[in-house]
Each structure stands twice: as C-alpha cells, then as structure tokens.
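The pair is quoted verbatim below.
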Amino acid sequence: MNFLLSLDISASGLYAQRKRMDVIAGNLANIETTRSRKGGPYRRKMVVMSTRPAQDFNKVLASQAEGVKIDDIVEDKSPFRKVYNPGHPDADKQGYLFKPNVDLVVEITNMLMARRAFEANIAAIKSTKQMALKALEIGR
C-alpha cells in the first residue's frame, strides 16, 4: 500500500471540503445583501468538484481516481426572493425588494455535510498514520 498516495488523496479531500466551507460561509455572510458589485442582490455560490485523475498510466486504464479537485465556483441561477418592503432603499417602484437566493436551511445542511466529509478525511489520515506506524513496528 502506498501510504503517501493515501495521505495525498485525503489531503485533497480536506482542501476541497475546506474550500466548500469557505464558500458556504460567504453565502451565509451575504444572506441579506441586496446590493452587490455586479448590481442587484448577492447570488449564492456553489463549489463544483470532480475526481482528480490518476497520474499512473495503469491506474488511468483502470479508471481509478486519486483524490478530489475543485473545478469551479459557480453562481446559482435560481431566482431571487421577492419581498414587499417599500421603505428599503433598494426596493423597486412597486415597493418590492429582491433578496439573495440563499436559503439558511440549505446552507447549514451543506455546511454540516462538508464538516462530516472533512472529519472523515481526518479519520482516514489518522488510520493511514497508524498503519504506517504498525508497519514500522513489524520491521523491527
């Protein structure tokens, strides 16, 4: 077993989940932002991940992946929430305010899933470390 490869795969998962948590935190921070640089309300962002292709030719032929990579961070194109608030400075002529397409429940759920995946990668790193130590003990 290649211990370094196992650590590299888990490390790529840690990086991807950390980035996902950062994007979710940004979504939560902007849940009430009605004016962005692009004009209009803040648009929810999502992380697009895929498997990182294997570097070894034999593993490429066997369609084995070696970790996770972040392909892109994209904006959610779902419609904004429309709220009647005529006193708000960003309201339209009819008194409606467009709020970000960020749903608190969805973001918290995604944050919990990312956290669990992060913890799973940490557990995999700890297991790999224990196996390497046991292998060294056997060699004594």
Remarks:
- The chain has a mean pLDDT of 88.
